[in-house]
Amino acid sequence: MSLFNKPKRNIRRRSFNDESEDNENRMEIDQEPVKVKPRRKDKPKQTLLSFGEELDEADDGEVFKVKKSSRSKKLMKQLDHERRKKKGEEKIQVDSEQANMSIKRDKDLEIKTDDLVVKIKNAGPLILNGRAALVAGKDDYSSEDEETSKTHTFRKNTAQPDTMKLLLQSGCIPDAAMIHAARKKRQKARELGTDYIPIEETTEDKGKSRLVREEDHDRSDDDDEDRIDMTVNTEARDKEKRREAFLASQVTIKLSDDESEHGLEEEEWEVQQIRKGVTGAQIAAAQQDSIMQHQYSMGMNPNQMIGGSGVPMEMVLMPAPPPPPSIQPPDPTKVVPVSPQEVLEKMRARVASLQQVHRRHQQDQIQLQEELEQTVKELDEGSVRAPELAQRFRYYQELRGYVTDLVECLDEKLPLLTGLEQRWVDLYGDRSNELIERRRQDTRDQAEEITSAARGQPVRRGPEDDARIRRATEREGRRARRRRARELNRNIPKHIDGMSSDEEVTEQQNLIFKQTKEEIDEESQTIFSDVIEDFCSVRGILTKLESWRETDIEAYTEAYVSLCIPKMISPIIRLHLITWNPLMESADIERTKWYNLLLLYALDKGETEESLKRDPDVRLIPLVIEKVILPKLTAIVEKIWDPLSTSQTLRLVGTVSRLVRDYPNLNDTSKNLEKLFNIILDKIKAAVENDVFIPIFPKQVLNTKHTFFQRQFAMAVKLLRNILSWQGLLGDTQLKNLALGSLLNRYLLAGLRVSPPVDALGKANMIMSTLPRAWLQGATIEHLKMFATLIQQLSDQLDQANPAHNEAWDYSKAILSIIKP
């Protein structure tokens, strides 16, 4: 059982019929808490309307009424007229629940029933649908019409009927001008402050009216009648209202009927086409007829025109045509008389200009005829050359495919080739570095032995001493073997210790070296094993390019093929030159197979000296030597060449001098040749700084241990001879600074000073024999002045009466006569 008794409320529910269920749209409202007010028990007044009692009740309380837009009212009027015309007037019955409800649009919406009042907040314009919208619109419209007709029967009967009503009854669609006139009419009624809309307009209010939007200033509500306008800036407000009125007059009212929309679009299209095809003067001439016809057909009062001017809004918006130009007759007093001579001159000038134009046209015609003939000729030639050009096109397509495949093949094989070249250079370079380091270590060991013996230090035995003893034993053994080999070969001239190169290696080292070299040779033969002959041989590549040269020499020259050939065949030539070593063997590149192929490339029996000058491939072999051979030779010099080795130096000098002599492009402008000479100078500088060592000992030590001194002095003289062998290839300034300034004056002259005069003059004669004859001709070289002074001092120490000094005396005289101090 409930603790509280709930109050009984008799709430009557609305019954929905079939018509309300078929409506698709629904009322959209926001509900607020319900407020219940006591029902008034006053006796309802008798009215002529079936729901007049509820209206009277609502006068005492807050009754809300739905405010509808002008568009909805017009639609409802049209629908009501059609319904009456078809079915007759039918009175719509409303059930008891709908009769007790009155709807009014204001701030809130109040719905009254028998025992409660419901207030619903209306956030925006209330949208009704179904029977409710029909009843609300019809009731408002019919009630307003009836009240107006009953209340104002005293108005003049001579007034014209409502144009809008007549249009709606006839089924026509009002245009913008009529809508504007209707709004103007309602505005005047509001400004008069009356409760009715007059049927007939008076002329007293003309000029005072102002276009006001009906939706914003509708005075149908009771609360708006007493509202006071507190606006300060009236001018801005009036300006805004006029702008809104103008914009509203420009907008065409879109009705829901599809036919009306289509009609408006056609009318607008017709206006646009007329504006395009008719001038402003024609429009101005036709305006009066259009205005009169418009007034007659629409039955429009002149007061209903915009501004009372009798011109519709559409015509007002049309731009006014420009005034016609005024033509005045000439003044006889101001006319300048023209003589016949002036007329004749003007006619002659006119004829001359026309003749000039005629000549220009004739020239243009001749030019066009020539161009036409040339075009026809080119067309005939093109038709004749079409098969030849088609065949040429196929040939170039095939050649393009071949070149593309060749480039792809070489790009794939080039890393393998570069790896083999590096392995071969490293193999010979490691052996050369081992021999150079062993020679320098032997020099350090001998110098330490002599120094220890001179100081009288006791012999110590340790790991370092054992290694030094082992190295000394191996060194003496190699010297003994070289001495026996020279004794067996009696054709060799007298040998001086220190002049020979110690390049002997052990059997194990030699075996490992040969095995690695054979592996490199085998791998070099398998690089192009999976490639056909046309892509991996110099003959195959040159055959393709030679056929191109014979087919189209002009295109061959324009494509700079002669400059591209060295790069295309360089990988194959480098593969053939992997084991090429000009330091170990005198291998002539002119005798190789690839060189002969390049030499015979594009050979013609009828070639002459003049034709060779125009031949683009005349510099093919020099380019190959510069681009392929010189980089290979530079790597060999940098990694393998030993400047103290006379045999290597002489072979290298012979190879370089032959290349420079035979190929004219190897000059001072060649970057590859410059790089080679820079590497040679760097190697010579390193040898002078690291390999030359002439010990300076006291005479008593020198007499007992003179072998090491003699060997080191002879080694320095051998290096001087190897350096001076580059005379003619390297610059004289560089060579003089290295050979004379560094090696002779710094090391050799010091050795000559500590030697006996006879021995010193013999060594001086050996040094003099290594100097180039080109340097000894002319003025005395600056670097030889110290040498000449020392020779003069040594000759003064000689005893001319001693027969043993005669040879030394002859050496000094010959040296001084050549140097000319």
TrEMBL record:
Coiled-coil stretches: 344-378
Look up the signal peptide feature and give its range.
Answer: none
- Keyword Nucleus in the entry? The reply is yes
Question: Which cellular components does GO assign to this protein?
Answer: nucleus
Where is each GCF C-terminal domain found?
539-748
What family is it from?
Answer: Belongs to the GCF family.
- Mind listing the GO molecular function terms for this protein? DNA binding
Give the matching PANTHER family.
GC-RICH SEQUENCE DNA-BINDING FACTOR, LD29489P
| One GO term of the biological process aspect | mRNA splicing, via spliceosome
Give the record's keywords alphabetically: Coiled coil, Nucleus
The compartments listed are: Nucleus
Q: Where is this region: Disordered?
A: 1-52, 66-96, 189-243, 438-484
- InterPro entries with a match to the protein in the record: GCFC2-like, GCFC_dom
Q: Where is the composition biased (Basic and acidic residues)?
A: 23-35, 77-94, 204-220, 438-447, 461-477
Provide the protein name.
PAX3- and PAX7-binding protein 1 isoform X1
Coding gene? LOC105268890
Q: Where is the composition biased (Basic residues)?
A: 1-14, 66-76
Name the principal localization, coarsely classed: nucleus
* Family annotation (Pfam families): GCFC
Lineage of origin: Eukaryota, Metazoa, Ecdysozoa, Arthropoda, Hexapoda
